[in-house]
Design goal:
This protein is an all-beta fold. It is built from no helices and ten strands.
Length: 90
Amino acid sequence: MPQNMVIGNGSVGIMDSNTSTLGNTIISNIANIGLGSNSAYIYSAGSNSNIINTSNITSAAGSTGRNFGIYSAGNVVNSEILILEMVKET
């Protein structure tokens, strides 16, 4: 199992654009995820998709803007910590 992953500024780590009837299943078990500014770890557009997350997701130090740990139109099961701190842009 990978230990750490950093999503850069303005980036998406995993993109699921499948909107079919069957949907996709995404299982995340990376130990720690760090989010840069205006980024998302998992984005899923499918209302029939499933996301199972056991990764700790945090905003990287000094990140600004909007961060999304998991953004989904479907089902999400989260069993770990999400810490998304907002730093106001000046």
